[in-house]
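Hi P.,

Sorry for the delay on this. The queue was packed all week, but I finally got your sequence through. Input first:
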Amino acid sequence: MSNQSTKHNEWKEWCRIVQNATHINLKEPEDIRNKRINKAKTDYDFFVNYYFPHYATDPCADFHIREAKALKRDPNFFGVWEWPREHAKSVHADVICPMWLKIDDELSGMVIIGKNNDDACDLLSDIQAELQFNQRYINDFGQQFKAGNWEDGNFITNDGIQFLALGRGQSPRGIRNRERRPNYCVWDDLDDDEIVNNLDRVERVVDWLLGSLYGALDIRQSRFLGVGNRIHPKSILAHVVGDIDNKPKRKGLHHSKVQATVDGTFTGKPTWWQKFKTKHLQQRFERMGYFMALREYFHKAVIKGKIFKQEWIHWGRIPKLQQMDNIIAYFDPSYKPKTTNDYKAIKVWGKKGIKLYCIDAFCKQTSITEAIKWFYDFHESLPEDVICEYWMEEVFLQDMFYADFELEAKERGYYLPIQGDTRKKPDKHARIQAIAPLWERGLVTYDIRQKKNFHMLQAIDMTLGFQKGASIHDDGPDADEGAVWKLQRKGQTSENPARTGKRNRKSSKGY
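Then the structure:
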C-alpha cells in the first residue's frame, strides 16, 4: 500500500471518530439550540468542549482560552504562539480557532503553511474532517463542506470560503477565491533540525513569510499567526519574534510565550496543570536530557560546543581516591536560596600530578536543604583514609546559608568542615572560559562509574552549552571552576587540608 493510500485510510478512520464523537439530539428544542449557539460565540472554553469532545479529553489550559480570545478580538492579529511540545498549539491554531472565527463571519479564507506541501496538506486534513463530519458543528451552523480535497491542498465550503495548504517557500501569489482573499493564515512548526543550521535559508524563509505570504492576505483585515517552539537561537520563529542577538521583539507582534512549568523550572507546577502532573513532566525532562528538555519545553535552545566541545568530554577509570594528591568538593548554591529557580551545584574533583578527575556531582533545581544533605551523605561515604576539602563562597557561608548547615549539623551530630572561599572572583564568563584549555588538552577525566548519574550528565550539558549570553544555567561549570582553581593553587602552595568531621568506616560509593 502506498504512503498516500495509508494516509487516506487513516484520515477516513479519523473522520469516523469525529462523526461518532459528535452525536446530536435530533429532538432538541430550538430555544436550547439557540442559547448554545449564542454561548459558543463568546465562550471559547464551552465552544471547545461541546463541539470538539474528541480533542477535549482534558480541559483547556488557561493560556488556550486567553490566546484564542486575543486572536478573535483583533481583526488584524499579527503574532506568534511559542508553546511547548504537546501543548495543543496546532489543534487550536489550525482547527478550533478558525472554526470559532467562522461562526461569527470572521473568516473569508484560510491558508495553512507547513514545512513542505505534504505536511501542509496533512494539517489541512484535520479541519476538513471537522467541517465535513462534525455533526454538532453542522447541526448548529449548517452544512459546511462543498468541494475539493485536503490531499490536493485545496477545498471550499458552501459559503465560498477557500482552505489552502502551502509548503514553506511555495508561491502564495493569486491565492483567492474570486474576489475573496484569505484573511487567516497560520504557519505551523516551520523550523526543523536541518534548516536552523543554515542561516541563509532561515532568512529567506522569514523574508517569504513577511513579504510574499503576508502580502497575499486581505490588507483590510487579516490574522497572521505562527506556532512552534524555539529549537534554535536563530530559528525562523526566533527571527519573526525578533528577539535575537539582544534585539527587541518585532514591533506590533503579539507574542505568547508559554513554558511547560509556571516558574520555568524542571520541578515547577505545570502550566497546563489541567492535563499534566509534575511527575509526568519531570520524567520526560530526565529522559530527554537537559538540552532537549530546555529546547522542546522551555524555548531555551543552545548551540553546544562553542567553548567546551563534546569531543573534550573524556570518560575513564580514575585513580583510587587514596592516591589523589588532593580532593575538593565545591558548592555553588546559587543566588536564590528560598526558591527552586536556580540550580544547586556541588562538584567533586581530584588531582593527581597534572591530571584532573571529576569524581561526583550534585546538580539540581532544588532547595538548599536537599543539597546540604547530599553534601553530608557524600562526606560520610568516603573511606576514613581519604581527605576531601569542602568549599563554598564566603559570602554565602557567612550569610544566608549558615542556618541550613546548622540544622543539618544538629541532625548529624557534627559540623561539615566546609570553608569559605574568600577569593574576589573576576567575571564569571572569563573565569569559566579560562579553564577550557584543560579539557582541550585532555587533562580532564570524568569517572566512568558516573556515566549514568543524572546530576553529572546535567552538569556536563551545562558545560557544553556554556557561552556568553546563553539562556541556560551555568551553576555546574561555575562549581567546576571553583574546585579546579583551588586544586591548581594547591599544586603551587602547601595548604593543609581540613580534617574535621565524622566519617563512616565503609564507603557506600565503592572507592
